[in-house]
Fold each of these.
Amino acid sequence: MRYFLQRFAQLLIVFGLVSFGVLLVMRIGSNSPEELAIKLYGGRPLSPDELTEAISRYHLDTNYFVQYFYWLKGLVIDFDLGQSVANSRAVADLLKPRVWTTVLLGLYANVFGMLIAIPVAVRQAYKRDGRFDKAAGLMTFVGVGVPAIVLGVLLQLLFTVKLGWFPLIGDKIYPWDDLGQHVRNFFLPTLTLTIPVAAIFARLLRAEMVLTLQSDFITLASAKGVSPARVLWRHALRNSLFSIVTAVGTNLGALLGSAVVVETLFDLDGLGSQLVVSVLSSDLFTVQSFVAIIVLLVVSVNLLVDLAYALIDPRIRQMRSLG
Amino acid sequence: MTTSVVSSQPADRAHERSWWQRLPKGGVLFSILWLGILVFLVVFADYLSFIRDPDAKVRVAGRLQSNYKLGPGYSAWFGVDGNSQDVFARCIYYARNSLQIGLASTVLGLLIGGTLGVLAGYFRGWIDRIISILIDCLLAIPALVLAVMLIFRLDDIKATWTFLGWMTRKWQIIMTLSILAVAPLARIVRAQTLSLREREFVTAARSLGAKNGRIITKEIVPNLVPTMVTVAFTGLGILIAAEGALAFLGLGLTESWGFQIESNRRRLEKAWWATVFPCLMLLGTVMAFNLLGDRLAKRFDIREAAV
Amino acid sequence: MSIVIQASTRATDGPLLELSDVRTHFQTPRGVVRAVDGVSLTLDRGRALGIVGESGSGKTILSRSIMGLLPPRGTIRHGSIKFEGREISGLSRRAMRELWGREMAMIFQDPMTSLNPLMKIGAQIAEPLRLHLDMSKADAWVTAERLMRDVRIPAPGRRLHQYPHEMSGGMRQRIMIAIAIACGPTLLFADEPTTALDVTVQAQILDLLGEQRRERNMSLILVTHDLGVVAGHTDEIAVMYGGKLVEMAPTRQLFANMKMPYTEALLHSIPKLADPSHTRLNVISGRPPDLVNPPVGCRFAARCPYAQTRCREQEPPLIASVEDPRHTYACWYPVGSPEYHEAKERRRREAELAA
């Protein structure tokens, strides 16, 4: 348990520091509370009444630590993230309907990425340096490096323009609203995000599997008369799986970065695309909150990754119960 | 039993190869050709007759080829875009920005990240703790999100703090991208330094009374060079892709492949060439750097080379 | 009690294992490594054979060749291996799998890395039982518990549900033995089973192996670099050097009357309890031969204190001793013979001249 609590505390500190850093980046560079208030309200001139209201509401006349405290309090207690100026709506109302787009995209990419990567990497490791291994190695190499814009545009060209299978402009429609439409609209964005993820997973898992297959306990399993399939899937894969679990955490940043591009490219209204829109309209509150929420997502996933480690490996599990 | 079992390969017959067999194979050959030709075209673009002025309007038989009228062909290799400008010429001229920004931000990132990594790994203790927390924090923000946020704020901060006025848009992007490179680089360099500082030659230098500064510059840094060079190549690819993504989102330069893609992609159906060729330029360049990085990583046996 | 399966087709007479001219070579970038280079021997039922040699002598590769456990890629195999009268050297991996666990089993050197870290001990012992004997899960676990008791593991019921990292090295080696004997194999390979263990545990493990072997009437091939280990636990000893068999004899005979200078050197390299405490260890100077380009004559000649010109030019054949036909050796100047004393004297004079 101590191991887990330690990680939890560590991630909490990271979140605190990062969200404070984001607030700082958002608010430095103003000479007076009035100037800051105007900036926070999108740069339009404010009446004296509006000014005093804004300053007192967000405590702009205090130092950044106090401002951060009130922002954090708003986030945790009332889920009040301030006012989106560009839309004259509460940021929270802007956020809620969009979170699912990004979360679903991330989830799909990781799940499908694993479903593709695991069989490919296992086959590669089994017949190492064989024809399949080499072909898959080349494909995963390209897959890891291909920029999201390039992949997205090329997939759009093929599936939408040439084949006409998917709509060119798709609204975000969630599976609980209309599953068929959801699949049609989310297919290409998901594919664009999944290919690099699958490629990274496959490369890491292959390398780990190759090492695992050389270990003594694998030879012993064979010497017991266990079938190659069982050696591969039951003994070797499970011992190599943590490489993928780690990659889920380390790759999340890149995945969410690509999600910004993909949401914009496929007109899927999500955290990323809204972030860009807010940046272009100088909507400070929204940008700050969205970045904070994205960081919260990253931190939470990393916590899940730690849990998954414990699930896979009894040694980590027992380290917890000992502590 | 020490007999190693290695996959069946014919014995190395390097000395029997003729010169054309000794050329680098596959990926590296592609990288060298691609980057060589690209750099040549970029440097001499102004003097090469087959590269038009990127802003000039293409005319065929005196008629303006507006609204994607001309596809890829003899008069315009990559076709024309909506403003009847030559897509090929733009692709070449915009490569200038991509390569410059990629190179400058990689060098800057290497300097900052390398310094932080060496300090953390060499001195350990509280310096290491602070730098490690900083790295963790930077890694908690998705790189592109961080870039979007920083570029956006630099515009405004520049207006208030006038001493930053020298920063053009291009410099803003370089600064931002170099910050993206800092965290992963610092982490790799830190890990390497941690293991280097325990090696015999460092211990020997220390026991001879060498000062920390001397050990770092004479013993540690030279041994970090292979890793840094390797990571730099892979990093270049990634940063060029990031530059493209920023431009695509409308936060980068307008003279960029990314912006070309963005401004033509809604006409994909009518004129695929105006979008696809910039895409391929970006893909080829990113891949060329990735391939070189991968080759070097294998050569120096570096595992964690991915930024 | 354990379950011993006797297949009806099994031949019950004749030797259990017959090797003739077994060669195992590996293709490497450096060239062909002749790891095992022409080994012939027979092993009778219920007997224990020790294969002794330095690292690099081919002893491990030989045992893995017999079992067919070598990676198929880059491995070149020749010669005949007969198990219970049946030729098995050409069998596919699939066919060999029928033998593994059921007919032959192996105990590895390092118990720390040879157990799957993510599987419960019980599941690892039960796996071959369920696979080969078609036991239900419950039966297999009950049998596993009994096997753990057989190999003297305290509180087996609790240990079944533990993971390898919760056990000591000696305990893990016992588990390895339990796994190996689970399906009642006729031939057990033990590859340096005690090298990775504490000295105090080593004797226990060897005794346990001997005891289980007698109880289950298994044949044992004990591979080790340590003549001391095989002395009390085998019926016969085969000494390997540079991929070749250089001497083989019943254990007693070998210790009483060894012929090969290499065997002698191996014996002298064991420190004796009777020695004063700071006696220098006798090491065999020099390095094992290069198996890519093996030397022309006797492979031990370069390191042999009695080597003559003939040794460096002609390879000595494996011949039977006049006193005991079961004792074979490959040496031109066998220890104790008149030629040997002559050779020793000649080398002494040469050394004096050179000095």
Amino acid sequence: MNDNFPILILLFLVAAVVVLAFLALTVFFGPKRPNPDKGLPFECGTVGVGDARAPFPIKYYLAGIIFAVFDVELAFLYPWAVAFRDLRLVGFVSMMIFLAILAVGLYYAVRRGVFEWK
Amino acid sequence: MPFPLSHLLHFTPELILIVGFVVLMIVDLIRPLRRAAGILALVILAAAGVVAMFGWPGTSQTIFATYSHDPFALFFKVFFCLATIVAVLFSLASFKTDAEYYLLLVGSALGMSLLSGAHDLILLFLTIEMVSIPSYILAGVYRGQRSSGEAALKYVLYGAVSTGVMLFGMSLLYGLTGSTDFDLIRNHFLQGSSSPITLFLAMLLILAGIGYKVAMVPFHFWCPDVYEGAPTPITAFFSVAPKAAGFAALLRLTVTLLPRGWEAGWDWPMLFTLASAATMTLGNLAAIAQQNLKRLLAYSSIAHAGYLLMGFAAASDLGFQAVLFYLIVYLFMNYGAFFVVDIVSRKEGSELLRDFRGLGYRAPYVAAAFSIFLFSLVGLPPLAGFIGKFYLFGALIDQGMVPLAVIGVLNSVVSLWYYVKIIREMFLRDPLKPVPLLTGVGAKVLLLALMIPIFVMGVYWSPIIAVAGEAFQLVLP
């Protein structure tokens, strides 16, 4: 019988042991020389300003999501373009419907003010 | 080779929903039309439901090797369209909202329709997400309210974790069998070449993800908080439609992947037996202490998930049919109960037990309707809830699983206690404010429309059970 189960158990055990071992080893053997600079949140060497829990505009994320949609659309367009001749009219019409749905989505986003940076 | 376009005909209900979704997006942008969005959503959903109904019972076939077109899927398509229609009517009667709200409901219905036919792990995962993501937004649709935001955030966080767990289970299943197609996975199992314990782990993880959707103990934690914080029509929708979607997925998974008589090396009905007993017991015991009616109904809906799991524990045709029948009954009685809670909380500003004090004198019709929904939830004859439970218990007895049936009956007795507590509050206590609570005609008609099926199915249930039996014709080799 092709028994994968011991391998799975081993995976879990090894993962758990490695993690716990590293945690335990640093507690016991790691050098501890605390200083106030080490307590700062590390942000590429820049000195932190203010609290992280502040309200911030989500405009960027909206634009980011819409970018992701069109990025994925491109991923669909490439294979379609390559197989364009073989797919004939059916492929063309299908892709146009797909693009039309996306276009409506983009229009919707524009009209709802996603790209207005105020 | 391009796929045969005629296959698209099997997707007519979904195509209607997709076109409707796009049309609703455009309508949302045109100011004068925006007010008609609710009505338009009703038309779209009704069209999709009717088209699905005309396809009944149809033939069983698998399309693109990923999608089942069978009576089971059609049954659930009609069910989901109906559930969403009731949610839209409920919202129209209850509060003013954006067209976006109806857009999301239609999107959710689309996800659920596709889910009912999913015959592939990836499609199953995608459709579950298509149902979940609109649900997360709908939970937070009251933008200004903290409780609504809390509900949405909790739903997203718990949902993300359970989705991750389910995906891990699916990846194990894929690793074991090298396929995401249900048929190929089952064939691989039947050859008996995979380790039973790894298979058990994979199915357990997938079950955890779906158990979250149906609020199965121990994955029920989100349920009371989300139900309390979300707007009441949405709470009612969550308690019926996505829950039924979870059960649809669970049904297809258990029936296609775990065929009866197959020596799996582990007793999977036992797993459902334990889950069922734990779910209904915890739901009912926790409901006793609740003062907030939405929380109470949330725990009651957890308990009902437990009752429905009894059909899986029985693991017989009779048990699965009983699940389908109970889902139909559950749709009407649960929507009804939440609708009454919404009517009262809209007037009183909160949905605590004391707000219902003396409702029998302030709004006799609404209080009487509420009593009927609650009695049906308990499962008292001659209401539909009784017939539903009768079939579930009958399926258990038929399989000789008397202990679980006894636990179920004891649970029904416990549930009687907290449901009747509400009825006592309504009829045997003097109202805090002795002024009549007025309800609109639309609300009264909707209540009546939800009550009639409960009475009818309580007396004349054979056509519905026949439909449930016919729906249980899955694509099996």
